[in-house]
Amino acid sequence: MGRGPGGSLSVQGPGPLPNSGDPPPGALELRLRRVEQELALVKAALGETLRRLGGCDPPGGLGESGDPPGGGCGSPKMGMGDPKMGLGDTKMGLGDTKMGLGEQKMGLGPPKWGWGTQNGAGTPKMGLGPPKRGWRTLKWGWDHPEREGVSVKMFLRGRPITMYVPSGLGPVRAELPPERLQLDWVYGYRGRDSRSNLHVLGSGELVYFIACVVVLLQLPARRQRHYLRHSDCVRCLAVHPDRLRVATGQAAGVDKDGKPLQPIVHIWDSATLQTLQQIGLGSFERGVGSLAFSTDQGAFLCVVDDSNEHMMSVWDCARGTKQAEVKSTNESVLTVEFNPRDSSSIISSGKSHVYFWTWSGNGLTKKQGIFGKYKKPKFIQCFIFDAAGAVLTGDSEGNILTWTPSPGKGGKEMYQIGQQTRAHEGSVFALCRRRDGTVLSGGGKDRRVLSWSPELQLLHEVELPESFGAVRTIAEGPGEELLVGTTRNALLRGTLGSGFTPIVQGHTDEVWGLATHPKLCRFLTCGHDRQLCLWDGSEHALAWSLGLEVRGGLNWGGGVWGGREIGLWGV
């Protein structure tokens, strides 16, 4: 088997099966096997629990901030130091996950043999209890003879994953093959819990990320290139003013041996895919949440991490040295940007706040935006600068607020709300200023893309199909073309007049089932989002998808068979 960046592979030989015609093993041997399986399960469960507490995306819907409840990788809501996220609250402690094996519940007594249909005829009932909050059902034990043979064990983030080699493949060698695999295509886009993650480079390529990969997609040729230097989930992305260099920040994680990986920012060349600078190793906690290049030739980079205090720091891009650092807020920070007119001015926004920062030397000072007579929203989701220098913010109340600069005490500039514009039903997730000065806004609940004049008079609107989800981000393509990322992990392309069509689609939660067609260049996937998807490998496109009532795995033999978590089967 091959060896990839996410884990190592080893090959295991077959063991005796109790239903293969051999005499049953002795009671002591059965106990030893059972203890080994229980220890492996407990180890995997503990690793999964620590991984989720350290910063994984739990399944669930979108909250008012536009993120799934509990935050994403490296989210402060998933930190062990947060009193609201104890083991009992996350429902991921060992007591809640029901880690008993079948009816024995971690006992060492003799296994209960049965002829049930859930795990196969004659298979010991040794599955986990009902899964909670994304826990998958693991079924350990001896399988029926059709699946007897070698198995492959892969270690992902320190967790052992056993995969059985399909029958009918002939002899399987234990040594690694001489060939090396090269990544050709990545399906999907991370829009469910990320912001400002879709940009157009000077080359015309789209740049976005999913998992540990940053994808550069060339349209209309539909060719991909990939930046692969990150060791864990990429969480944010910023493009340099030259539209050539890119900065990407990753979450904390663990390597294949379970050792911790620290968050870091990579600055790299999109033409050569070479890393130019690595910033902040050992300086960030949990993950990198937001990034922004300065507008004075992009000499500096502002970074906000996912620690409890959401540390804000400014770095010299060429030297990789820290220029200033300050605790920003204990609330979630969703986005940060330099003022395009003044690189000493920085703005950040998030839960219940918008801050106007002044950077001088090694110090950062802030002034809080005052809402005055206007209702203070729960979240400031996004903001842009208009041509006149005003700041437009989109919030969870569905409003666009216009903050205008005015002289304050001591001649220092301050921002006040000059106008409130009702834009969307539900949150405003995205704002984009076009080349002609018009403004685009994207809605969460209503799934609409609206076009506004510079004075915020409504010009045009279009609604996205429900199957694609809400608007996550908007980018301007060539001419009148727009690119839209959605919360259901799709990238759409089109215009306000003609509508939008998908160019990239993917699952919205973890994928745990995959089956290839025996003859055609097609494959099936399914996962925790309860979607069964058929993919055309030659066109790199989704052929069709079907909603399932439960999560499951797959096997393709003559027809499509789906083995589901609760033990049911469908064709």
TrEMBL record:
<feature type="compositionally biased region" description="Pro residues">
    <location>
        <begin position="15"/>
        <end position="26"/>
    </location>
</feature>
<dbReference type="Pfam" id="PF03451">
    <property type="entry name" value="HELP"/>
</dbReference>
<dbReference type="GO" id="GO:0051301">
    <property type="term" value="P:cell division"/>
</dbReference>
<dbReference type="GO" id="GO:0072686">
    <property type="term" value="C:mitotic spindle"/>
</dbReference>
<dbReference type="InterPro" id="IPR015943">
    <property type="entry name" value="WD40/YVTN_repeat-like_dom_sf"/>
</dbReference>
<protein>
    <submittedName>
        <fullName>EMAP like 3</fullName>
    </submittedName>
</protein>
<dbReference type="InterPro" id="IPR050630">
    <property type="entry name" value="WD_repeat_EMAP"/>
</dbReference>
<dbReference type="InterPro" id="IPR055439">
    <property type="entry name" value="Beta-prop_EML_1st"/>
</dbReference>
<feature type="region of interest" description="Disordered">
    <location>
        <begin position="56"/>
        <end position="87"/>
    </location>
</feature>
<dbReference type="GO" id="GO:0005874">
    <property type="term" value="C:microtubule"/>
</dbReference>
<dbReference type="GO" id="GO:0000226">
    <property type="term" value="P:microtubule cytoskeleton organization"/>
</dbReference>
<feature type="domain" description="EML-like first beta-propeller">
    <location>
        <begin position="223"/>
        <end position="494"/>
    </location>
</feature>
<dbReference type="InterPro" id="IPR005108">
    <property type="entry name" value="HELP"/>
</dbReference>
<keyword id="KW-0853">WD repeat</keyword>
<keyword id="KW-0677">Repeat</keyword>
<feature type="compositionally biased region" description="Gly residues">
    <location>
        <begin position="57"/>
        <end position="74"/>
    </location>
</feature>
<feature type="repeat" description="WD">
    <location>
        <begin position="504"/>
        <end position="536"/>
    </location>
</feature>
<dbReference type="Pfam" id="PF23409">
    <property type="entry name" value="Beta-prop_EML"/>
</dbReference>
<dbReference type="GO" id="GO:0008017">
    <property type="term" value="F:microtubule binding"/>
</dbReference>
<dbReference type="GO" id="GO:0030496">
    <property type="term" value="C:midbody"/>
</dbReference>
<dbReference type="Pfam" id="PF00400">
    <property type="entry name" value="WD40"/>
</dbReference>
<dbReference type="InterPro" id="IPR036322">
    <property type="entry name" value="WD40_repeat_dom_sf"/>
</dbReference>
<feature type="region of interest" description="Disordered">
    <location>
        <begin position="1"/>
        <end position="31"/>
    </location>
</feature>
<dbReference type="InterPro" id="IPR001680">
    <property type="entry name" value="WD40_rpt"/>
</dbReference>
